[in-house]
Amino acid sequence: MALAVLLVLAALAGGSFAASAHAASTDVVHYTLSPVLAGDSLSAMAVEIRFTGDEDGETALELPNHWGGKTALYEGLRDLVVSGEGATLVAGSAPERRTIRHAPRSALTVRYRIVQLWAGEPVVTGGNEYRPVIQPGYFHLIGEAVFAHPGRAMVTPATFAWSDAPRGWSFASDIEHAGSGKPMLLGDLMESITVGGDFRVAQRGRLRVAIRGSWSFTDRDFIERLEPILRSHHRFWGDPEQPFLVTVLPIRGDESMRSTGGTGRQDAFAFFSTPNVEEATLTRTLAHEHLHTWIPRRLGSMPEKDEASDYWFSEGFTDFYTLRLLLRDGVWTLEQFTEAANDVLRAYATSTSRTAPNARVVSDFWKDPDVRQLPYQRGFLLAMQWDQRLREISKGARDLDDVMLAMKVAARTTSGRASLATTRLREHLARAGLDISSDLTRHIENGEPILWPGDLFGAGASLTTADVPVFDRGFDAAKTGANGNVVAGLDPASPAYGAGLREGMRILKRESGKTGDSRVPIRYRVLDGETERVIEFRPEGRERITIQELKLAPELVATDRQALASRMSGR
Question: Do 37 and 160 belong to one domain?
Answer without folding.
Answer: yes
